[in-house]
Amino acid sequence: MISKEKNPDYLNSFLDYSITILNKSPNSVKEYNYDLSNFLKFMMIHFKLTDKTDYDEIDIRLFTVKDLKRITLNDIHTYISHLAIDNKSKASTRARKISTIRIFFKFLSIKEKILEVNPAQNLETPKLEKRMPKYLSLEDSRKLLEVADNDENRNAKRDFAITTLFLNCGMRLSELVGININDIDFSECKMTVIGKGNKERTIYLNKSCMKALNDYISSRPPQNLIKKDAKNSDKALFLSEQKRRISNRTVQNIISKELKQAGLDSKNLSVHKLRHTAATLMYQYGDVDIRALQELLGHQSISTTEIYTHVNNERVRNAVESNPLNDK
Question: Residue 180 to residues 124, 185, 186, 192, 295: CA-CA distances in angstroms?
Fold first, then answer.
């Protein structure tokens, strides 16, 4: 929950703009608020507008529009340097904060016209190393599904359906938790999910997914026993033992427990790694076009999806071996 009463008006205007016009999710706006609050608190210290060093004690409402106009690109660089040296922030973390600052100043200078000059106009993002995604092999994926399909577990049908969707569809944790029963078109074998930035996309369901879903739905509690609350639990597909919409934490615990039971590395593997697994297996074994994979995963940029083209070294080896000059 954002405490808007602790913000200056121009920051609250930006947050409102992010929700209503940029269509950012509540979690994204919460991150914006956190990042920009810290940025403004640093600037108050940097400009000697406060003698406090504890960020919790600094009141950013005292940072006026006049103070905003003092900020230059060098001042922003000083802040980014502080993040890297003092806070030991990773390049990816700094890149996210830089993106927030850039959007914020663009709003102030172009939309609100509070600033005549945008100090972040030439602000660059640190170069990020592309890391190979961690994922399960086909054999390990099958092992995980075997563990999930455990008759001794009273929630076996639910947990098996969850694991099946992750491994077959490559959806995000928040997308799975947010699924409502009426999001599923059983006749067309597809469902709609709400991804990042509140963007809706269609996910097609194969036979394994449909069977797992039908088996689970047949075992769900009667509708009159399901709680009605702010999370629309009465519409939710996946329910907790309290008959409410299942939480992110519960799903994470389910997958972590299954990974351990399957003898897999639960410390370095996670729910998100199952998304990587689905994408990798589809690319390796399904001969999926990279654009189709981008649409399936809900990636805004094709460059995000392209990382899966580098994970299959065997395919690269086979390409070299199949060169017609190989026998010369």
Answer: 41, 11, 13, 9, 21
